[in-house]
Design brief:
This protein is an alpha/beta fold. The longest helix has 29 residues. The chain is about 45% helix and about 15% strand. The protein has a 7-stranded parallel β-sheet with strand order 3-2-1-4-5-6-7, with helices on both faces. Strand 5, helix 5 and strand 6 form a beta-alpha-beta unit. Helix 1 packs across helix 8. It has 8 helices and 7 strands, in the order βαβαβαβαβαβαααβ. The chain folds into 2 domains: about 210 residues, Rossmann fold; about 35 residues, no CATH class.
């Protein structure tokens, strides 16, 4: 029997790497798309860890902002494996600033990667999954796509948009055997949060005075990346998760109750 296949954008590190390993450990072959060079140490290490599980790993340098890159990515994945069971639109970036301080470039960067990049991923996922008559598409949004957060306008705009995209595509794919859902995590322990600018954002938000991300992790509740991978894997594989589409699943540590 052919092994199932998952394609993950932003797959070289952080959440994407964690999701990839979760699927690989459970019998999936993996397509990893990332802006990083597959021959770079970070990407090579991820591939080695996936292959150590017995899975095949196809590593592709692809920019979600480039239609040519994404078209070539999906073509190569299809030529290599002949199927796409699960696609996880995970690639994303974040930046900070009060709405009136933001530049066009800051806004465009996050919208291009987090929202339009997700649409581009979903577009090709739908095209190929419709050929085979089944599939699961999982978009990574955020709890910041469910409520506003000071100094996070770009991220909130993009992640709200991802939810709208998910709900629309779910309607369009009714009856095709393809479901589309969104995972909305709160703060997560990944390299994206281990920066001085993120620590300053949390300090401004909470009134704390953390000196570094290690102190921040000790002082504020954060999800472990495995928490999200467990949810993504469940959405991608369980019979129960195949029975709904267009939903937002919040992993919020209680923040949605505030």
């Amino acid at each position: 029997m052919d092994r199932k296949v998952v394609l993950i954008t932003g797959g070289a590190m952080g959440q994407g790497k964690s999701h990839a390993l979760k699927f690989a450990e459970n019998g999936f072959d993996v397509v990893l798309a990332d802006m990083q060079d597959p021959e770079g140490e970070v990407f090579k290490q991820t591939v080695a860890e996936i292959e150590a599980t017995g899975a095949k790993a196809l590593a592709v340098r692809a920019n979600v902002c480039s239609d040519d890159d994404m078209k070539a990515l999906f073509e190569k994945a299809w030529e290599t494996f002949g199927r796409l069971d699960v696609v996880v639109a995970n690639a994303g970036v974040i930046n900070f600033g009060y709405t009136w301080e933001l530049t066009d470039a800051q806004v465009q960067k996050v919208i291009d990667i987090d929202l339009i990049g997700t649409w581009r991923t979903d577009k090709y996922a739908a095209l190929y999954m419709r050929k085979q008559g089944f599939g699961r598409i999982i978009n990574i949004s955020s709890t910041s796509g469910m409520y506003g957060t000071p100094k996070l306008a770009t991220y909130c705009m993009a992640k709200w948009g991802v939810r709208g995209l998910t709900k629309t595509l779910a309607q369009e794919l009714k009856g095709t055997g393809i479901v589309v859902n969104t995972v909305c995590p709160t703060k997560v322990k990944t390299p994206m949060c281990e920066t001085d600018s993120y620590v300053q954002f949390i300090n401004d938000l909470t009134g704390k005075h953390f000196a570094n991300w290690q102190e921040m992790y000790d002082g504020v509740p954060f999800l472990d990346v495995a928490d999200i991978s467990d949810m993504v894997y469940w959405l991608g594989t369980s019979l129960s998760a195949g029975k709904f589409s267009g939903r937002d699943l919040g992993l919020d540590l209680g923040t949605l109750q505030q």
